[in-house]
Amino acid sequence: MELNARIPSGPIEQKWDRARFEYKLVNPANKRKYDIIVVGAGLAGASAAATLAELGYNVHCFVYHDSPRRAHSIAAQGGINAAKNYQNDGDSVFRLFYDTVKGGDFRAREANVYRLAQNSVNIIDQAVAQGVPFAREYGGLLANRSFGGAQVSRTFYARGQTGQQLLLGAYSQMMRMVGLGGITLYPFHEMLDLVVVDGAAKGIVVRDMKTGEIRSHAAHAVVLCTGGYGNVFYLSTNAKFSNATAIWRAYKRGAAFGNPCFTQIHPTCIPQSGEHQSKLVLMSESLRNDGRVWVPKRAEDRGKPPSQIPEADRDYYLERRYPSFGNLAPRDIASRAAKVVCDEGRGVGPGGLGVYLDFADAIKRLGEDKIRERYGNLFDMYQNITGENPYKVPMRIYPAVHYTMGGLWVDYNLQSTIPGLFVGGEANFSDHGANRLGASALMQGLSDGYFILPYALGNYLAGVKADSKPSLDHPEFKRVNAEVDARMKQLVSIKGKRTATSFHKELGQVMWEKCGMARDRASLTEALQRIPEIREEFWRNVTVPGTDADFNQALETAGRVADFLELGELMCRDALHREESCGGHFRTEYQTEDGEALRDDERFAYVAAWEYRGEGQEPVLHKEPLAFENVKLAQRSYK
Amino acid sequence: MRLTLHVWRQPTPTAEGRFVTYTADDISEDASFLEMLDVVNERLIESGEEPIAFSHDCREGICGSCALMINGVAHGPVAGAATCQVHMRSFRDGDTIVIEPWRARAFPVIKDLVVDRSALDRIVSAGGFISAPTGGTRDANGILVPKADSDAAMDAAACIGCGACVAACPNGSASLFTAAKVTHLGLLPQGQPERSRRVLGMVAQMDAEHFGHCTLYGECQDACPKQISIDTILRMNRDYLKATATKRPERVAAGEG
Asked: Are B96 and B6 spatial neighbours (Cβ–Cβ below 8 Å)?
């Protein structure tokens, strides 16, 4: 396997223009002779499917939900960044590019990030044209807010439902093309494998979730926009069904996996309330503007009601450790600091996994009404979930997994190491380096879908003969189809004693403890031993009731967990090899005296791309060196 | 908590369904309603029985997947909440809870509590959009939208497409769902060129999918987890009347097609 990022030559401002000019084109009359499979209909998938269909290609879009509108992009709250400089506060494409590369702790590809910043302005135009109801000022102009990691106001938002509104915008364009016949939609279809014929991606094998039937679909190219893999931790802020199966199957068919260990952990989530917990809910980071984070100074006080812990016995640890940023320390710092105090036995709430976020001072200073006006909906949401009134008692928060920067490796054209297999959105590794800034995920998904994939696909298809789509009778299709079918039948026939979810929880615990907010050689080595053991028991002792020829949610879960059990191992392997700390990847052996992430640019300024070499074989590491020509490599500090 | 559940079980779309009674023991009142079902399902799987199929995903009230009739009320006892946002502290120890799928002619049951809501997608396909192909759009601030209109559009656009309005309606009408989209887009300057086509297309599709008519019971707005107002239906009806009265045949001039 050879990694070629295919970054166009020339100054960074001109690379994307140059690429688009050099891209080959498909004649409008010929576009309808090409079939493109798009898997997933979140922001990246829906926008790519709609745009490709508008261009005239035959698009086949597969989603495992009942409707494409349910993809997890819908849950994004805060906003979307764009370098519009509408606030006249000094923003520019270059500044957004700079902030994103720096925020990513210098582990992203400069050329990709610059293009993302360029496209950001078009995304807002596109969304407004579709009728996305962004927040507005009285004069009718668009409103902006600020977000972490930036000193300008460049975030566009639709209340706390920006992801929903952007997704519904893309969905509406997609459904328009469904009505016009440009897109064939396959709801309740889960991709279970990729078919590669003569070295190029030519189709997928899916399971019709309503009937259990395994079917193959052929095309001239395949686009995966299947989201992130945060659910490998079992508990995360991802939706329950979010899974890694599509990208993991592609990896096993030859697509390199980039930086699998880069996961982001968000500091302000509602803590777990008990064993029954199925997922975690994010609370907007903005709460840290007025809330003060603390735990008791002494472990024995942690069972006391907070009102009975006097000021002198409280440890406002963020203010203590980071006097200048205080409670607004960046996400990775704040998350790790919470873990440290909980590990010391000073965490509060059930299981000691929580810290207080206290608004008492702010309420005393500003009044309850002012706090209600600023955060009313968040306080309501908290009270709904926990049954506690945060105006009276401090909130309890704890960090949770919510985004994965890693994903399938792609070149500048978003093409994986398998020709004809393109990857967009969170499913690829491309733009966020080792840490994603807030309000950048929506931007990346739509940039990929509306403005990059449609051009890149044309360039690829221009070199593919229209009559080259293999028939479903091709031996490779038959072989993969049979493999998938056999795997499903195997899962229902094991008839062991444990549920798939119990294995998922066990894996999640290992991942969280050994490969979570802080990792070290010993913990990762232990995880690398433990995960294969869990996997071995899974394939011996899992129980899946019902049959494979039916709507069977237990079977769906089991298949996804089986893949997480493999992916988790690769994440640990990647985390172990990267002997430095950067962004969300914090190796405790590599930190400054102040406890900051200590990068090693000499040895690790590269993308780690892992190649699958077969069952029982160790994957092979390939390195794509990263060159920083426009942003100077520097150490981040938040003291 | 200990609860008695009467749950609708229906193995296939054509099979006859029935209520099956389960006892849910040792349930935390901090659990969400769906987490309670998770616990029940884990126990069922461990005993080799098929778990209760139900729709869910984001579990924070935004994806619109979850869809349960709880004691005859769409999304259960908490106002302005989807099923996933209902917690067991809303019930009492010893309660009996009846759990059913959405019941509407246009939403056939797939299995147990899972229904097929693709009819709602087809209504959107029939006009629930502004035709804005990618590229060729003007600068976003070139379109001014009064804040009041934008806020009202957002109120309607908050719809999560769960179908509770249909399930709650004695007529099985999708009017609130359809009207929310007609209102969202009709309030915006960008939505004006297609305003008539949109409402005509969407209403025709709503009929074709065998949703009932609206007779203004108002049950839908009470059931709506996003508390969308039936004022939107009045707006849709006005738009529909106007569009019907002013409808002109669509012409294709020679050489244009």
From this structure: yes
Among B111, B142, B166, identify where a domain stops.
Answer: B111
Neighbouring CB atoms inside 10 A of A535's CB total 19
Residue type, B200: L
CB contact under 8 A, B117 and A66: yes
Q: What are phi and psi of B19, to 5 degrees?
A: -85, 135
- Tell whether pTM > 0.90: yes
For A188, the closest chain B residue by CA position comes to B116
**Are the beta carbons of A179 and B125 separated by less than 8 Å?**
yes
Sign of the torsion angle spanned by Cα atoms A70, A76, A80, A81:
negative
Q: In this structure, are B129 and B165 located in the same domain?
A: yes
Give me the residue from B45, B131, B191 closest to A176, CB to CB. Answer: B131
Reported confidence tier of residue A596, pLDDT bands at 50, 70, 90? confident
pLDDT tens string A450-485: 999 999 999 999 999 999 999 999 999 999 999 999
Which residues in chain B are closer than 8 Å to A84, comparing Cβ atoms? 140-141
Nearest CA in chain A to B186: A131
Last residue within a domain, chosen from A349, A370, A402: A402
Residue A516 belongs to a domain with what CATH number? 1.20.58.100
pLDDT per residue over A344-388, tens digit each?
999 999 889 899 999 999 999 999 998 887 788 788 889 988 889
Angle at A463 between CA A459 and CA A468, to 5 degrees: 125
Range of the domain at B240: 118-245
Partners of A497 in beta bridges: none
**Distance from CA of residue A245 to its chain's centroid?**
14
Is residue A259 a part of any domain in this protein?
yes
Count other Cβ atoms within 10 Å, centred on residue B138.
Answer: 10
Q: Which residues of A touch B190 (CB under 8 A)?
A: 128-131
Burial (CB < 10 A; 0-12, 13-18, 19+), residue B49, is middle
End-to-end Cα separation, chain B, in angstroms: 67
Domain range for A575 is 484-600
Residue B176 belongs to domain with CATH number: 1.10.1060.10
Averaged confidence pLDDT in chain A: 95
Write out chain B residues lying below 8 Å of A184, CB-based: none
For position B33, which CATH number holds?
Answer: 3.10.20.30
Structural domain ending residue among the three candidates B111, B146, B161: B111
| Option in A176, A276, A387 nearest B38 (CB) | A276
Residue of B nearest to A75 (CA): B62
CB nearest A141 (choices: B36, B63, B141) = B141
Question: Chain A contacts of B124, Cβ < 8 Å?
Answer: 171-172, 175
Residues of A with a catalytic annotation lie at 331
B213 & B104 share domain: no
Q: ipTM, 2 decimals?
A: 0.97
Residue to test with chain A: of B28, B47, B52, B62, most A Cβ within 10 A: B62
Query: Quick one: DSSP state of residue B28?
Result: -
Looking at beta carbons, which residues of chain B come within 8 Å of A66? 55, 65, 114, 116-118
Tens digit of each residue's pLDDT (9 = 90 or more) over B200-229 = 999 999 999 999 999 999 999 999 999 999
Closest Cα in chain A, distance from residue B67 (Å): 12
Mutate one of A136, A166, A448, A544 to test the B interface: name it (highest B CB count within 10 A). Answer: A136
Are residues A102 and A229 part of one domain?
A: yes
Inform me whether the pLDDT recorded for B28 exceeds 90: yes
Give one DSSP letter per residue of A375-393, joined into a string: HHHHHHHHHHHH---TTTS
pLDDT at B33: 97
CB-nearest to A131 from B120, B125, B185 is B185
**Residue pairs spanning A and B at CB distance below 8 A:** 223
* Interchain CB distance below 8 Å, B157 and A168: yes
Roughly what angle, to the nearest 10 degrees, separates helices A553-577 and A521-541? Answer: 160
Residue B251 lies inside a defined structural domain of this protein:
no
